[in-house]
């Protein structure tokens, strides 16, 4: 079997178009402009790229974008004071603090200082609890994007066997909650899982979110399964020239695509959906704030 490619880039484009149309309506009918504030502490190059891309796309859909770039040595008190100011700013509907934070800052404390209603990452402990109990919450963007692609491809996911590889708070755990919410039978596999290949071979849906380049080979994939690759790994590509890199996912694309029924590519799969979902979450936060 040769897998159908799930085009996350195109899908993200349609999500952004829908968000932009809604923003236009909010502006003209209600005189409201959704606003997203992104806070970046330090100069991590990958984070800088993400933040720039988020800011650009926020403006493109007609929203207000505010970026706060803070020195790597910013104190916890100063960061918390900025978040407090943003929590109380009525023109800001979504707040995102780019992770990872420098070591001297307590990530949990910082995330939990964001107003849950403005927590467009869905990382606040209240949103985590609401998602886990099936209540209305802000849903983390990457797993939300994966779920949207899965629903679009399959329609109903009810009764499917899903294996999520990776147990991070950002992707693995919320992904498992979302799949459970759609009535999948869910397994969370991780570095201590016994016989990972056998566990993955049972899956109708495989979500790989471990951050290890090309870790999942094709012979772990059940014939016809859907493979969602969350990994974005930069590996050396000497064939492209000295010092060059290329992006690969957490699955070995060529061999997995031979067995899967459908697969997301890297790049152009999950990545673009994450930012599109951030914009959708900001719109949702704005609509909830304004009744
Ligand atoms: N760093 C890597 N992924 C994310 C994300 O989804 N949100 C935030 N805030 N930081 C990240």
What's this entry about, in short?
This protein has 291 residues and is an alpha/beta fold. It has helices at 8-30, 45-60, 76-87, 107-111, 125-132, 141-154, 172-181, 196-201, 253-259, 270-289; strands spanning 4-5, 35-41, 64-70, 94-97, 161-165, 185-189, 205-208, 226-229, 233-236, 245-248, 262-263. It has two domains: 31-116, 3-Layer(aba) Sandwich (Rossmann fold), CATH 3.40.50; 141-271, 3-Layer(aba) Sandwich (Rossmann fold), CATH 3.40.50.
What is the secondary structure topology, with strand pairs?
Layout: E1 4-5, H1 8-30, E2 35-41, H2 45-60, E3 64-70, H3 76-87, E4 94-97, H4 107-111, H5 125-132, H6 141-154, E5 161-165, H7 172-181, E6 185-189, H8 196-201, E7 205-208, E8 226-229, E9 233-236, E10 245-248, H9 253-259, E11 262-263, H10 270-289
Helix pairs in contact: 1-10, 2-10, 6-7, 6-10
Bound molecules: guanine.
């Amino acid at each position: 079997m040769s897998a159908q490619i799930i085009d996350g880039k195109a899908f993200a484009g349609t999500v952004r178009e829908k968000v932009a149309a809604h923003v236009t309506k909010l502006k003209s009918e209600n005189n409201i402009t959704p606003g997203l504030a992104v806070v970046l502490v330090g100069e991590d190059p990958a984070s800088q790229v993400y933040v720039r891309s988020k800011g650009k796309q926020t403006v493109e859909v007609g929203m207000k974008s505010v970026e706060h770039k803070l020195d790597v040595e910013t104190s916890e008190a100063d960061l918390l004071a900025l978040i407090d100011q943003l929590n109380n700013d009525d023109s800001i509907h979504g707040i995102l603090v780019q992770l990872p934070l420098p070591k001297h800052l307590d990530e949990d404390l910082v995330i939990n200082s964001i107003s849950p209603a403005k927590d467009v990452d869905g990382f606040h402990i209240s949103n985590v609890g609401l998602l886990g109990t099936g209540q209305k919450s802000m849903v983390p963007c990457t797993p939300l994007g994966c779920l949207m692609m899965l629903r679009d491809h399959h329609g109903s996911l009810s009764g499917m066997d899903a294996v999520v590889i990776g147990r991070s708070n950002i992707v693995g755990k919320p992904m498992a909650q979302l799949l459970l919410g759609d009535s999948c039978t869910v397994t969370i596999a991780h570095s201590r899982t016994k016989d990972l290949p056998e566990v993955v071979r049972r899956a109708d849906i495989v979500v790989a979110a471990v951050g290890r380049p090309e870790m999942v080979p094709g012979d772990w994939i059940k014939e016809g399964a859907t493979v969602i690759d969350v990994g974005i790994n930069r590996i050396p590509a000497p064939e492209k020239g000295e010092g060059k890199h290329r992006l690969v996912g957490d699955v070995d694309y060529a061999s997995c695509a031979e067995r899967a029924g459908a697969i997301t590519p890297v790049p152009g799969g999950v990545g673009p959906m994450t930012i599109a979902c951030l914009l959708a979450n900001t719109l949702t936060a704005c609509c909830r704030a304004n009744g």
